[in-house]
Every structure is written in C-alpha cells, then in structure tokens.
C-alpha cells in the first residue's frame, strides 16, 4: 500500500474538526429542524472530508445529510465543498427502474396507445407476402426514404384503380393467391413459439383445470355455443358465444366447460342433506302417570 493511499484513508485533522461548519451548511440547505446528530466523518482524499448528519425529515428515514469540506495544501482555512442528501444503509429508496417493455402487463393498453413490436420478436416469423420486401409499416422494414414513400403512394393509387376496374390483382392458381386465401400474405405471422405461449395462456384462464370446468356438466367440445377457431388451434380451442357464460367472447379450451352448456337441459337434482346427529325437531313420548298394574 502506497503512502498516498494511507494518507487518503486517514481523515484530515482540521477538516474532521470542522463539524460546526458542516452543520451550518446542512441547516442552510435543509428545512429548519431536520438536521440531526453527527454520524461520522469519512475521508474522501487528501484534505477532503465528508461529514454525515442524521436526517429527521418525514419521508427520508435513514437518509443522511452529507457535507464535504476541504482545505488547500499548507492552509489552515477549511472551506465548504458540497452539501447533498444521500441515502444510508437502512434508508427507504425507490425501487430499481424497470424498462417499460418489462413493466407492461395484459390490459395496460388504452385507446390511442401504440405498442411497437421488435424486429426479432420470437412470437412472429416472416410470412409469404409475394414480394421481396415487407410493407413499409412493418417492424422488419428498413428506413423508408421519401422517394420510396412516394412510389408506395403511387402504387396504392394504381391498386385502387385496378380494383375499381374489377381487375384481379392476384392471379388465381398462384402461390400468392393461396397465401391470400389462407391469411398468410402478411409481412409476419405467428411463429410456433407464439402459438404455444398463446395456447398456454388461454388454457390457464379457460382450461380443463379451472374450478368452473371441474364443476361443469359437459365440456365445450359438445356445446352448441362453441365457435371453432381456424388453423392448427382448431383442434384445441374455440370462442364461446353464450352471453350468459363467464367466457363469452373469450378463447376457451375444448375441455373447458360451464353451467351454460347447450345440452344441460335437465336441472341436476339438488343433493339431500344428511340427517342431523341431534334431532331437535322431533318429540319423544313420556308417560304422565304411573304405569297401570298388570291384570
């Protein structure tokens, strides 16, 4: 350990004794009566010491007023350097900042809110758009120049003109026409990972393991109010169309069920309660007189 390091860890005597100067500076910066007892003096370097005072202000429990004083070399005059309120080891602090993308939860979006999708989103994969480049409003598109934007507007105007003339834009029998019919002619579609996490989320909310499904008379697969989905999810999910069901308008598992099943025409017989251990409603017969003599 060098001599300079040893000197920097030892508080300067004159700076360490300047407690009154540090206290007056803290009281000038703080409100009256919020500067408490002197806690300690910490060496910040050669002839630089920070005095710590307790903070009694409401809402800043455990915080400390830190006043740094210093003096020049070969000088006996101690001067004020800085006054600041710092958190202590047991102070109450705000939680660590979390990015908005990690704080976002289902249901947080409101009218007018925009949720940009990352270009490398694992929930999506490139679809078949019939073109080499995705549309300009896609997250995977490169920066659009004004010239390219003008060309896009002209192309859209020409496309509208073609539609007015009833001229087909996609020739029937081509791969693009098949992709258009299947709904795949988009810049990006759901990936296998996106399908899996969506299925897990729907099954957790309206699946076979929910209390409602456990008490249902029959599953949704045999219910007339079920609207099956398209694509691969048709084998496991559908949309409930029963206005009295708690899952009305929601994606439900085929194994889900509720009391609003279309075939629940017969009301179940209510269970009869077990007889009481102590019958308080019946009466026991007791004789009012002595028994009659025999004969």
Write the layout of secondary structure elements.
Elements: H1 3-9, H2 13-16, H3 19-29, E1 35-45, E2 48-55, E3 63-71, E4 78-87, H4 100-103, E5 124-126, H5 146-164, H6 175-182, E6 188-190, H7 192-205, H8 211-214, E7 226-228, E8 237-240, E9 251-253
Overview in brief:
The protein is an alpha+beta fold and 295 residues long. It has 8 helices and 9 strands.
Task: For the structure shown, list the relevant keywords.
295 residues, alpha+beta, four-stranded antiparallel β-sheet, three-stranded antiparallel β-sheet, 8 helices, disordered N terminus
Polypeptide structure, described:
By secondary structure, the protein is an alpha+beta fold. 24% of the residues lie in helices and 18% in strands. It contains eight helices and nine strands. It has helices spanning 3-9, 13-16, 19-29, 100-103, 146-164, 175-182, 192-205, 211-214, and strands at 35-45, 48-55, 63-71, 78-87, 124-126, 188-190, 226-228, 237-240, 251-253. A hairpin with an 8-residue loop joins β7 (226-228) and β8 (237-240). The chain is flat and about 115 Å long. The relative contact order is 0.07.
Cα separation of the termini: 124 Å
Return the structural class. Answer: alpha+beta
Largest sheet: 4 strands, antiparallel
Helix content: 10-25%
Number of strands: 9
Strand ordering within the main sheet: 1-2-3-4
N-to-C SSE string, H for helix and E for strand: HHHEEEEHEHHEHHEEE
Shape: flat
Regions with pLDDT < 50 over 5+ consecutive residues?
1-6, 164-168
Number of helices: 8
The fraction of residues assigned to DSSP E strands is 15-25%
How big is the Rg? 39 Å
Please state the average pLDDT score.
78
